[in-house]
Amino acid sequence: MLFLADSANLDELRKLFDYFPIEGVTTNPSILSTEGRPLSKLLPQLVELVGEKMLHVQLISLKAEKMVEEAVKYQSYFGEGGNFYAKVPVTEEGYRAIPLLKKKGIKVTATAVYTHMQALVAARAGANYVAPYVSRLDNISSHGIEVVRDIVKSFNDYKMPTKVLAASFKTVDQVHRAILSGCYAVTVNFEILERLRSHPLTDMSVEWFQRDGKDLYDIKF
Q: Which of 109, 137, 140, 214 could cross-link to 129 by cystine, CB 3.0-4.6 Å?
């Protein structure tokens, strides 16, 4: 089970990479717009920061052939052995692009997935990951966790190699339930990653330990 950071904020990511066991970073145009910096400036820094871990970068092109050209360009920033994933929306052109990208040796994350069937089609097309949007489904009463669970079940039933990378979370509970559904990975923003790893009782326990052990820990180090 893997945690990824859904962010392009370099300060947040540096903090996370310092202590949180994240396995990579995901981005999309909306995340980039929040940072207000062009991809040409951010991408080299993100590549340097993630090192050998995953970096999922969403493509902006609308036609399959252009998606391939765009992904090849992004992959060139990684050099040999880079762990780059092209994020492809599950549109008609996106489905066309997935096998074309795989033929180029480029790994693919099928994104903006809202249904079980979209995920299955993307998996059959060759996607390495599918990214169902949990909170956006919940907002229209479509039960995002159930969609994740159904995708996971079908992938397991049919022994498909594609993994589920659940996305779009607004609460820790959504992340918790997505993990219980069996999804392989989640991508989560900085605020929720901070919430899910912390608890006020943990902080209180540390305060109690400090108080109780103050005059007893006398071994010098």
A: 109
